[in-house]
Amino acid sequence: MKKILAAFVGSMALASAPVALAADATKELKMAYDADPVTLDIHEQLSGGILQLSHMTFDPLIRWTKDLGFEARLAESWERVDENTMRFKLREGVKFHSGNTLTTADVKFTFERLKQSQDFKAIFKPFTGINVIDDYTFELVTSEPYPLLLNTATYIFPLDSKFYSGQTEGGKDKSAILKHGNSFASENLSGTGPYTVTDRKQGVRVEFERFDGYWDTQSPGNVGKIVLTPIKENATRVSALLSGGVDFIAPVPPNDLDRIKRDRNSELVTMSGTRIILFHMNQERVEAFKNPKVRQAIAYAINQEGIAAKIMKGFATPAAQMSPAGYQGHNDSLKPRFDVAKAKQLMKEAGYEDGFTITMMAPNNRYVNDDKIAQAAAAMLARINIKVDLKTLPKAQYWPEFDNRAADMMLIGWHADTEDSANFFEFLTFCPDADTGAGQYNAGNYCNPEIDAMVQKANVETDLEKRAAMLQEVEKRLYDDAAFVPLHWQDLAWAAKKGVNIEPVLNVMNFPYLGDLVVE
């Protein structure tokens, strides 16, 4: 197994001056996710798995609370200077795993790197810069009034600028971000978080150890070692928990919810989800997809409620839009529209009554029942004479194919990174623009500049009622245009053996704050 340089350097640097933790971190946690992080570079990919890793090994400036408020972390306070500027006071005395001390230089380095990241730069587009006042005071500046500044600050996990600067022995830039490539940052890590990575073998096992120099001495967390084993197969993952092989698993497949509830040694935690699951229809690959009637026909042909009831066993909420209830853009008037007869009529009106053949791709270990969902959708499309050549792949193989837009229809799930409706649109329906990062995950190559302009206008509207009305109109326009095929919002479920108190560290964003986990 590959040793991680950060852990070695950090243990050497801190051996002479250990910092006492609030709780004795003597417990070990064995956990199984459906996949392990594809990289250690937290700016290489914007995904749930990478955000889970970020909260284990780094700390953000601020983080979300269970009720979607904000909690101080590396930024101990903040105040608005003017309508475009927010000033932050950085916590003093925080150490990185390497032993280096956190300062505003690290925040500036991180901010500039995020602006260069292919996956993150669209989120940070509203920001024009960062003003460093002193070692522990800095300001984030936006080009216009921005209602989501604090939301975005939850994605600034300060990197160790000294650790990630310079060149490797092979002459490579340590700060480089390489998508699906081998870089220094993809294999080495130095954060401020509760855990260091001590061993890692991609796809097999990742070991984490509690960082002796962790700044949060008030944390109740008492887990000193975590072993993460990726188990793709749902049944195998659940069996590992029920047999005592692991202590904590996620996700729990709908088919096994009752099985875990019946087990006296296990506890199940469920939560309504905000991750939308949808299909894109690639208009650059399929001429027919440029016709809105064909797109509408596909939307009418796919039975969202049937998928939620039968495949998801009721553990999902059928969707007709991206914004879940509670988000500003959620439009109550939009309903799922399954109607095969209507779908056939639309295909006839569009001149495609005899149908056509398309390719479809989906992952088979990223979302709950993702491969089964794709299979069901393919069967439903056959009823309107669209023949589907379906291919499903493991997550690690799927994302490069998704980035290359390798199929005519592609499945994706999205949780709004800013807990706001606009984030869905910016990444999934905006006209693709490689320079700005807009439409980074728009695998349908859908483009409606008028709708994009509506979102951009909403993004500088600080009157929340006006902003909500604008975003709800965006959802209506996308619905009428059948810009994508919404399926459902995926509910969340985790399970652990009794005595592993996971409920307090779980959240709707699905990145558990494992540094605060208490094991009895």
UniProtKB/TrEMBL annotation:
For this UniProt entry, the molecular function terms from Gene Ontology, in alphabetical order, are:
peptide transmembrane transporter activity
GO CC annotations on file: ATP-binding cassette (ABC) transporter complex; outer membrane-bounded periplasmic space
The cross-references to Gene3D superfamilies, in alphabetical order and at most eight, read: Dipeptide-binding Protein, Domain 1, Dipeptide-binding Protein, Domain 3, Periplasmic binding protein-like II
**Is Transmembrane helix set as a keyword in this record?**
no
Which InterPro entries does the entry link to?
A: Peptide/Ni-bd (IPR030678), SBP_5 (IPR039424), SBP_5_CS (IPR023765), SBP_5_dom (IPR000914)
Instruction: Give the Solute-binding protein family domain ranges.
Output: 71-433
Instruction: Name the source organism.
Output: Marinobacter fuscus
Name of the featured protein: Nickel/dipeptide/oligopeptide ABC transporter substrate-binding protein
Q: Which UniProt keywords apply?
A: Peptide transport, Protein transport, Signal, Transport
Report if keyword Transcription is assigned.
no
The record's annotation in Pfam families points to:
SBP_bac_5
Q: Which family does it belong to?
A: Belongs to the bacterial solute-binding protein 5 family.
Source domain of life is Bacteria
Q: Which residues form the signal peptide?
A: 1-22
Q: Name one GO biological process term.
A: protein transport
